[in-house]
């Protein structure tokens, strides 16, 4: 099976008018979700650091663990968006090819 990214490049080469449709829908979702994954990863790293500090210094351990869970849910949500955007691109290519 041909890689979806390769098929997109071929289609865009053959029909540049598809750029507007691609940029409007799937690429903005991918870009947004990628940014969200990065942010969630940074959130989790901060929360993990705070968890260790709280455990060692009698700080807000519960709050740090809650922050870790929020980062985990944010990561799962953004990963799901990436999967849906990838599926949308693949289905669009199937329709167009």
For the largest beta-sheet, the strand count, sense and barrel status come to: none
Radius of gyration (CA) equals 19 Å
Oligomer class:
single chain
* Overall tally of domains: 1
- Counted beta strands: 0
Which keywords apply here?
97 residues, 90% helix, Flagellar basal-body/hook protein C-terminal domain-containing protein, mainly alpha
What would your notes on this structure say?
This is Flagellar basal-body/hook protein C-terminal domain-containing protein. The protein has 97 residues and is mainly α. The chain has one domain (4-96). Helices cover 90% and strands 0% of the residues. The protein contains three helices and no strands. The chain has helices spanning 4-14, 18-57, 61-96. Helix 1 (4-14) crosses helix 3 (61-96) and helix 2 packs antiparallel against helix 3 (61-96). The longest helix has 40 residues, at 18-57. The protein is rod-shaped, with a radius of gyration of 19 Å. The two termini are 13 Å apart. The model has no long low-confidence stretch (mean pLDDT 80).
Question: Secondary-structure map with pairings?
Answer:
Elements lengths: L3 H11 L3 H40 L3 H36 L1
Question: What is shown here, in short?
Answer:
With 97 residues, this protein is mostly helical.
